[in-house]
Structures are given as structure tokens and as C-alpha cells.
Amino acid sequence: MGDRRGRENPRGRKNLKTVFAYNIPDSMHWKGLWVIYSFYGNVVDAFIPAKRSKEGKRFGFVRFST
């Protein structure tokens, strides 16, 4: 199962934007994704699934409030 953390419950929120991150290093945790993307806005959720892409790359999603 993937690793996920959110400060707010994103369900029911209409003003959210999701960014797809690809080729994430094996050493990166969802917290690192959160910190990096927090420079670009208010992050409310960061998620890196345990499953990899077909190419074997790690990917994740970062959700921002707008």
C-alpha cells in the first residue's frame, strides 16, 4: 500500500488542483514531496503509491488548494 498524508480532508473541496510527479527517487518519502512542492503553493495532500509505472519508475501526486 502507498504512503499518504493530508492536512485537510480533500473530499468535497472544489478548489483543489493535482500535480503528477514522475521519476521520484527511491529515497524520497511523501514528506519530501510535500516540502518540495510547498514552495509552489498550499499543499493539502501528497501521495506516493507503492506501485511503480510500467517503466519501473516511482510516481506520486501532490494536491494544492487554490
From TrEMBL:
Q: Which InterPro entries match?
A: Nucleotide-bd_a/b_plait_sf, RBD_domain_sf, RRM_dom
Membrane-spanning intervals of the chain: none
Q: Which UniProt keywords apply?
A: RNA-binding
Q: Which residues form a coiled coil?
A: none
Which CDD domains does this chain map to? RRM_SF (cd00590)
Q: Can you say what this protein is called?
A: RRM domain-containing protein
Q: Where is the RRM domain?
A: 17-66
**What are the protein's GO molecular function terms?**
RNA binding
